[in-house]
Amino acid sequence: MKMGAGLKLHLVLFYAFLYVPILVLMALSFNRAGLPTVWTGFSLEWYGKLFTADPIIKAARNTLIVAVISTVLATVIGTALAVGVETRRKSSALDAVLFAPMIIPDIVLAIALLSFYSFLNVTLGLHSIILSHVVFNIAFVVAVVRTRMRNFDHSILEASADLGASEFTTFRRVLLPAIAPGVIAGALLSFTLSVDEFIIAFFTAGPGSSSTTLPMQIYAMIRFGVTPEINAMATIVMLVSFTLVLVAQRADKEVFTR
Amino acid sequence: MRNTLKSVILLAPGLGWLALFMVIPCALIFTYAFFERGVYGGIDYIFTFENFQRAADPLYLGIFLRSAKIAGLATLFAILLAYPAAYAITRAPQRYQTALLIFVILPFWSNYLIRTYAWIVMLNREGLINQSLIGLGVTSEPLPLLYNNFAVIVGLVYNYTPFVVLAIYSSLNRINRETIEASEDLGAPGFTTFRRVILPQTITGVAAGGVFVFVLSIGNFITPDLLGGGRLQMVGNLIYDQFLSARDWPFGAALSMFLIAVMMALLFTQAVLTNRAAGEGRAS
Prior knowledge:
- The structure holds two protein chains of two kinds.
- Chain A is an all-alpha fold.
- Chain A is 76% helix and 0% strand.
- In chain A, helix 8 (167-196) runs antiparallel to helix 11 (228-251).
- Chain B has one domain (53-283): MetI-like fold (Orthogonal Bundle).
- In chain B, strand 1 and strand 2 (43-47) form a beta hairpin.
- Chain B is globular and about 70 Å long.
- At the A-B interface, helix 1, helix 3, helix 4, helix 5 and helix 6 of A face helix 1, helix 3, helix 4, helix 5 and helix 7 of B.
């Protein structure tokens, strides 16, 4: 089938709509003048400023701690959950619970968690952000791994059991290799989500700046005004996200198209 | 017996986590919504309906309606942009389709704050759009494109349209191609084929994408906060304010119940639509 000229034009304009703002932002991060939107010459000055700013380095470190720990927890728990759900009979109530973290407004989950922690008198900090991030990360790992499980021939598991393999051996030698691409993709997506998440972290970080994450730092800078430093930081953060997402897609080719 | 045990070991940690850190916290704010606000911002455990009555006050009702209007317009524009894009992708050569889809979804996975900030850079008085309009002689003065409802809608459409493209693409892909060919062979003009054959078969994709945009837009906090004018733009900002500035948690909790109710009603409608479509698919 072929595409009409009108459709082709629409598609080109649509990609322009998606990418022009990002590309303008990236281009301006190399702009020499402090002016945010007018080009005055190439410079790496803003990147230099970024890597010497203590609050930004500290926020980046906090973000990495949160993202790594919540990703590891969510990947292990979420993979088990996906396998458990797919090997028992279908339940739409269960599906709804697993889908809920993806669709519930961030602000609602954020205030619910803040209320919950303060009800229990939990001291807020990086640990409370991690506990909270695992919630939505589990949902994404489950979704990706379940898709993978559905394309898997379950009779192979029975064959393995019939041949005398233990449950654990069957899991490790048969099931895990088959779903591994989904697990890796799920982990990478969790990591990306956690690195970028702002509202829940903002509400569950507690007072003070000791557990400020990178998105919280970016938010504070944006509220302050448009600066070339934000453009430089935005460029780095976006390139990291894009790389992770493309690697996730390489790992599991069906991760975005099913 | 063995299978039950295995099932429990696999399911318990995940379901336990979601129960502890999602279901219980949501239940907690649900109960908070029925209590009175404490003098110093805490909770007084006295039962009341006042928080819900207050939410019906014309001031707050106005914010609800504005949120619904903005979310509705964002949903409409997202669908109008996404449908032809998704349709164009299904018509592209098969080997390019995955790549085209990945480039639609890629920005969706980058930082939401940054994607929103990019529009501050685009829409401000010295931004690319105003510079271009002045350069082309369309206007001599920069237009006020930022810090208003227009900017909020642009931001929401930008952030959520990729998902709508994906939802519509997957339903377009499931269409029975022969029905399109039959319609064309019988001499139906292109638009009639679209309206009578293609659109009805993809309505579930449109609904799925639309519900997603609407739900995430009406509860949005960042986009109206960064691109909108004024402090209390939408319900999300109002809830934020109750929790972090006004310190009236019960009222904030009642407001968030409203968001949950809207979300559940829409998801239910979407499920009914999808089931009905599936039923019709089987019947034919």
